[in-house]
Design a protein that fits this description.
Blueprint (H helix, E strand, L loop, with lengths): L4 H4 L7 H10 L5 H25 L27 E2 L5 E2 L2 H6 L8 E2 L4
Length: 113
């Protein structure tokens, strides 16, 4: 069935039983296909590993700081502890900034410059 040994061998060694079954059913293995599969798998593995190590460290919180809706009915205390919102507005304390629609991780301590 096979003309020479190169047609019979592949990158994935076969047992005698597997070779016998291949010959019986007329299966010819392609060594280049085995190499392609191994190469693609290797590239996929290292790409996913690089994404997990490098791609997930950076979380751009500053891009998600969008002012939400004004919250009605919230009563804030009158303690002066100024905070600055991303739009440059200084609020008396974080309660007023959150009441005006800013998320807590978007505001910074201190007055705006």
């Amino acid at each position: 069935m096979y003309k020479n040994k190169e047609q019979y061998e592949s990158f994935f060694p076969l047992s005698e039983e597997e070779r016998r079954i291949d010959e019986k059913h007329g299966i010819k293995r392609n060594p280049l296909m085995g190499c392609t599969i191994v190469s693609f798998g290797t590239i996929l593995f290292w790409g996913l590993l690089a994404f997990m190590l490098i791609g997930c460290e950076y979380e751009p919180y500053e891009y998600r700081c969008i002012k939400g809706e004004y919250t009605k009915g919230v009563v804030c205390n009158e303690i002066y502890d100024p905070v600055c919102a991303p739009d440059g507005t200084t609020y008396m304390n974080s309660c007023y900034a959150e009441k005006d629609g800013w998320d807590n991780h978007c505001i910074t301590k201190g007055e705006c410059e």
